[in-house]
Amino acid sequence: MSQIIDRLGKLPRSQRLLVYGLGYVVLVAVMAFALLLPTMDDISTATAKRTELTKKRDEVKARAENRGMFESELEQLQADLKQALKELPNDREIPGLLSEIDSLARKSGLEVRKFQPLAEAVHEYYADVPVQIVMAGSFHEVAIFFDRVGKMNRIVSVEDIEMTNPKEADAETTLTVEGKVVTYRFLTEDEIKAGRDKDPKKKKKGGE
After folding, report:
1. How many secondary structure helices (H) and strands (E) does the chain include?
2. Residues 94 and 58 in one domain
């Protein structure tokens, strides 16, 4: 150190001032770096936190502003569910519904030769309730029957219809109509649970 000082002392005054100035600048830079770096990290952390909180505030604000819309959608979903419940009969109503379909066929002028309930096709929350039908009558009577079925308050579909054996009688053509009439019903809670117990995939899905 003494040698450095001796050498500095031998330098011209202008050079000594330059060396002293550079040393001062370096010292200030080191101190500033040591003091400001932690502060900059704190500022960066605080800025990120502020951004996160602002985002959460905006999300909460948006949900609050849309609360009325969400409540309206929930009311509509509840109304749709009630309507679906009306259109899908429960298990106790199925015999009466099938009797009504059979009655509509007869009132339409059709001769009902076969009206046989088939095995249900069970899905996760509902079941298809098919009935095999064989009827005879004119095309006009068949059309009336299909129209009346389509206007029922319950969901009923007509599938796999075939019209065969056309015959002329009293200036009118009669047909033999074969196919299926299908209605649907919601499963009971016990049936849904039993189905999930049999099928691990459904059980897992229902538990999520």
Report:
1. 7, 5
2. no
